[in-house]
Amino acid sequence: MLLSTTGNISVKEVTVHHWREFVAKVKAFATWGQRTQANMVNDAKQFLRRLESDHNINYGFIRNRDYNVAIPEGSKTQYTRGEVQTALQYAKVISDCRFCSP
After folding, report:
1. Of the four, 9, 59, 70, 101, which is 20 to 30 A from 3 by CA?
2. In this structure, what are the phi and psi dihedrals at residue 95, rounded to the nearest 5 degrees?
3. Among 26, 23, 34, 19, which residue's Cα sits nearest to residue 71?
4. How many domains does the chain have?
């Protein structure tokens, strides 16, 4: 996606305008959740940081917080010990079933 934004240019020619367009494209993907969007932007940032060190370039715009995509809070469920034990009992019953398909 970053390549489709920049086109076939030298790594030294990547500008903040390319970065803004890339972030806008990521945010425009309606099927991607906030976490996926944030991951895509962060992966591209890591790629550009490596380019910086490999080619002695300075992409100052990747450190600008205005271009960050917010990472949403996770929604993990905390199960009680009893719920886990019950689930394990059901899993054991299912695994012991000889009529169940493998």
Report:
1. 70
2. -70, -25
3. 34
4. 1
Answer yes or no: is 63 within a domain: yes
Tokens 């992409």 found at:
59
User: Could you tell me if 6 and 49 are in contact, meaning their C-beta atoms sit under 8 angstroms apart?
Assistant: no
Quick check: is 102 in a domain? no
Grade residue 75 by pLDDT with cuts at 50, 70 and 90. confident
60-72: pLDDT as tens digits: 888 888 877 777 7
99 assigned to some structural domain: no
Encoded tokens for 57:
């370039």
Distance CA 56, CA 50 (A): 10
d(CA 36, CA 12): 28
